[in-house]
Write a structure and sequence with these properties.
Number of strands: 9
Helix content: 40-55%
Strand order of the largest sheet: 1-2-3-5-4
CATH architecture of the largest domain: Alpha-Beta Complex
Structural class: alpha+beta
Number of domains: 2
CATH topology of the largest domain: Aminoglycoside 3'-phosphotransferase, Chain: A, domain 2
CATH superfamily of the largest domain: Aminoglycoside phosphotransferase (APH), C-terminal lobe
Length: 337
Amino acid sequence: MSEATPAPRDLERLAFARAHLGPAAPVPERASSDAGFRSYWRTRAADGSPRIVMDSPPDREDVRPWLAMQARLRTGGVRVPGVLAQDPENGWLLLEDLGANTVLQVIDADSADRWIGRAFEQLVRLQRIALPDGFPAYDEALVRRELALFPEWFLGRHLGLSLAPSEEDVWQDACAALVGAFRGPAQGLVHRDFIVRNLMPAGESVAVLDFQDAVRGPLAYDVLSLLEDAFVSWPQARVDGWIDGYLRAARAAGLALPETQAFRRDFELIGVQRHLKVLGIFARLRHRDAKPRYLADAPRFLAYLDRALPRHPELAPLHALLAGRVFPRLAPLELPA
């Protein structure tokens, strides 16, 4: 049986790699992909050292925002993958190879303090970066656009549920309350997906990935993303201790943050918005993009919501709506005690 003819994109990938690594560079082999349209391919330089080719098809995902943010973060002292060669017009980057594992693959209960601490070191550096006027913001339009993913994709498309008029009123009231949580005074650069899967071990530090969608917004957002992660959950007592550790480090670095209780309130309300958004995104990945594996973690986000919503009276009707319509269809995960 003859071998399949390589696709044009495969041939272009090989040509890009060999143009920068020499004609003996091996055919790139898939290393990983993400929830977007980018994919990552491992090959080797002439001396045998590994390299990564990022493939970002220009008609699907422009690589230039990634490049611009990589430069901004690197200038600010954040550890990010090094760019060794680039062809942004055609969607190719040659990157340093940071290995096969993200922090998600290596973190456990015994090592979590160390990894979370390293993550916060990079996060505080990221948050201290000055932003120019006009930098994209986590404004009301963006917050509401993200929230709209939940009723459209998770409730409607995935669970087959539609909201009655009274339930739609509950939803709109909750959205208004959550929009308010994004208007606090503690604002700065927000990664938007600062999770252990987007961090890679890098010596005694961690490297930050998937940063191209960063905006100006509430500093609590990335802290929440890390500590109430999509793929791993921690006991509440550990989360509380890590929040305190972050606040000490951030204040020592000169970041202007509210007092602890106000920060914790922002943390929880921003978390409600993020968890609803992620549920919508995961359902969209399943039903629009044929990527079903993300929805396996939907019960984790329902559990985060089930834990946070009762603490905020203004969101009690939303909690009742989820408990009555959603939880009987998909039960929340039991979080670590």
